[in-house]
Prior knowledge:
By secondary structure, the protein is an all-alpha fold.
Amino acid sequence: MKPLAQLHIDIDDRVQSILTERTDWLCGKGCDGCCRQLARVPQLTIAEWDLLREGLTELAPEQLEEIAKRMAAQTLSRPVTCPLLDLSTGACPVYLHRPVACRTYGFYVQRDLGLYCHDIESKVTDGALSDVVWGNHDAIDQRLAALGKSRPLTDWFAEWIAENS
Length: 165
């Protein structure tokens, strides 16, 4: 099995465990808060980009045009809205092909980079999720590093569009 596929299985297993144990967990279908309030554009390894690109090639040309416009409009202002997010539905059109950063949002944390769910943080602060222990993203980062250097999603996308124009 490829390392990225195994990482996805491990993440999905852990996420499912959290959702099973915590029926009050905020992350789930219909929640796009993290996608609308990213600290930065997701960073992807080549393996992640290859998978995401598969999903992108399945989209209608109009969807790709809209994504391309949002990619080009990315600025240095924060928070960042994911350029892949369908703003009208709040859904990800490439959900099955999404990168690790998207698979782990709300479940793993890089607090120093602002990569965590602020709604969950509020519930922890208020005592509603008092047993949540903030972890870090080190284990995931180490496994991703083994897949190669990461680049911003916008860079991968721009290069792909240029190659296919």
